[in-house]
Amino acid sequence: MSDELKRQRMELLLDYIMKKCLWQFHSRSWDRERQNENILKITSQLLCDEEIVLDTPEQRCYWADALCMADAFTERFAWLAEMDTRQKKEIMQDLKERLDFLTINGSLNLELKDIHY
Known about the structure:
about 120 residues, iron, iron-sulfur, oxidoreductase, EC 1.18.6.1
């Protein structure tokens, strides 16, 4: 798969998240970092048919969001089924990096980093 095709596909996944997933709008950067990390990690594990460890209530909450997202990705983006595990992991890592930039690191929302908020 070319880098351009991978980027286009990652942008489709990102577009879904930006339009359909409310968890991306937490009011603090540390909340967003945890959400992005855990939900996308579990989504990747689901897409790759890997074992998922749900030891805490927090992990089960992330799993619920990840399950909905993995189901939606599978339903909407048939090309995911054609990808091998390595490709899925790569696209999910690219997705996380882009989502982190848009919702945390590149955000102009100063309240995200306000220690008094």
